[in-house]
Design a protein that fits this description.
alpha+beta; 5-stranded antiparallel sheet; 6 helices; 5 strands; flat
Length: 221
């Protein structure tokens, strides 16, 4: 092999080594950066409200990262513990009665509370399944997250078919999207988890979950 043939081969190996290293390092670096940014963001909100007597930053020559996050987790857990008894429920009911007298704050609070109760309740099955629907036209399929059975006036006004409320995420930002009311018969429920479906949406289809080999392989023309 001549020197001219060796140079492209060496460059190709170096390129492959770089791409392999990038695949390993980039996810770790991005995950660490986002985690660190979240910890600092919570600390920036919580630490100013911690009394100096209990704040280690007041005694140490350096800031303790994550102390604000731990404090927030502790306070939230204690609020949940206190709310579980009669005295706590009485205090919460009194606070909600005060919010009911504030027109704008009342609507915002009730809306956010209903969303968190629906998403975080243990008995809720919302956003625990992914599915496929034909969107934006017949023959084109999109991934959706199953929210809940359609209720209220929307369910009453729709034709006599049983429908489901679904959230159709956008790529590459799955936090934005569309709320759709789809007939149950038009939804294909997927075996993949919501996390796997979200990865597929974020990556624009580049990351696809492993397909079980026990299932029959779809024939292609």
């Amino acid at each position: 092999m001549t020197d001219k043939q060796k140079r492209p081969a060496a460059r190709l190996r170096l390129r492959n080594y770089f791409l392999t290293g990038l695949i390993i390092v980039a996810p770790i670096a991005i995950t660490a950066y986002l985690t660190w940014s979240f910890i600092l963001w919570v600390d920036g909100w919580v630490k100013p409200y911690i009394p100096q007597a209990y704040n280690p930053d007041h005694y140490l020559p350096f800031a303790v990262p994550g102390f604000g996050l731990l404090t927030a987790l502790f306070v939230i857990t204690m609020i949940g513990f206190l709310t579980a008894n009669l005295v706590g429920r009485t205090i919460v009911s009194f606070g909600e009665s005060l919010l009911d007298r504030m027109p704008l704050v009342r609507s915002l609070y009730k809306g956010l509370k209903q969303i968190f109760q629906t998403v975080l309740a243990e008995q809720s099955s919302s956003f625990k399944q992914a599915g496929l629907i034909q969107y934006p036209r017949l023959g084109l399929w999109s991934i959706v997250f199953i929210a809940t059975d359609t209720r209220g006036e929307v369910d009453h006004r729709l034709p006599g078919e049983d429908s489901i409320s679904v959230f159709l995420p956008t790529t590459p930002n799955p936090t934005s999207g569309f709320l759709l009311f789809v007939p149950r018969k038009d939804i294909i429920i997927l075996d993949m988890s919501v996390e796997e479906a979200a990865k597929m949406v974020i990556s624009a289809g580049l990351v696809s979950p492993n397909f079980p080999k026990t299932l029959p392989i779809k024939s292609k023309a």
